[in-house]
Amino acid sequence: MSQSLSCPLCGAREPEHYHRDTRRDYWQCRTCALVFVPPDQRLSAEDERAVYDLHENSPDDFGYRRFLERLFAPLSERLAPGAHGLDFGAGPGPTLSLMFEEAGYPMAIYDPFYAPDTAMLERDYDFITATEVVEHLFDPGHELERLISLLRPGGWLGLMTQRVISQQAFVRWRYTHDPTHVCFFSEATFHWLGDRLNMHVEFPARDVVLLQKQF
Q1: Are 27 and 170 in contact (CB under 8 A)?
Q2: Do residues 68 and 87 touch, judged by C-beta distance below 8 A?
Q3: At 71, which helix (H) or strand (E)?
Q4: CATH class entry, domain 58-213
Q5: I need a labelling partner for 163 at 20 to 30 A (CA). Which of 35, 63, 132, 201 fits?
């Protein structure tokens, strides 16, 4: 089967089989190290939306704000006053965008299900955030390249996603239990992405990565 599979991030073919649980297979790209679920084992768009509709994230939830602070704090430290941002994949209860607006950073939001205004993807930004988003992407190579193309020189892409540590840890990893999680990044994957797209890469927290577009 590996001969018919290609990596959704870099396009390389013939990945290695990485793991199988009771529901799905996981393959790892030999080039960029992305671990991914094959297309025929992903949810339909309708079933995916049904899972997202169960989310109860809210700007009024202090615990959720504290969770988002792990990205908000290190990213805001790197931004010029009044920098303009985009929250990509904002979900049904946009909160990170509100946190940035409260701190003086004008924000746009985009979400394919809940805020599908594609005009937001035709502007330039000083920074873009995507919290708990990249693990859901069916075509992360295309989506990440598109987001980076929207950044002005020196702009930041801030991502929150749990990272693959090892094959042994992956077997016990609860992060794979969510059926909408189909792509799993490691530090090696983000370093590959940084080299590929000329981005400086930083890891300020265990589930946060910041990529800066070079001038």
Answers
A1: no
A2: no
A3: helix 62-76
A4: alpha beta
A5: 63
